[in-house]
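Input structure tokens:
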């Protein structure tokens, strides 16, 4: 979305800025999107945690779940 907006703003003016800014915006969007992945993986681990000795106790699981959902 950022790259398309930058292209619309710069298409009549500066071609070099467009060619540099478009890919830069795509990289920035990818980095911003990747920031949330560790939380999602933590929630997935918590939801599918094995029972027995590897399972977290219920109080710790609730606290960790509340932390990861914020």
């Amino acid at each position: 979305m950022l790259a398309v907006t930058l292209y619309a703003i710069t298409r009549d003016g500066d071609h070099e800025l467009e060619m540099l800014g478009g890919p830069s915006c795509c990289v920035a969007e990818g980095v911003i999107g990747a920031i949330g992945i560790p939380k999602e993986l933590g929630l997935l681990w918590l939801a599918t945690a094995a029972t027995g000795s590897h399972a977290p106790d219920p109080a710790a699981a609730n606290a960790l779940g509340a932390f990861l959902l914020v």
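The chain has four helices and no strands. Helices lie at 2-10, 15-34, 37-47, 58-69.
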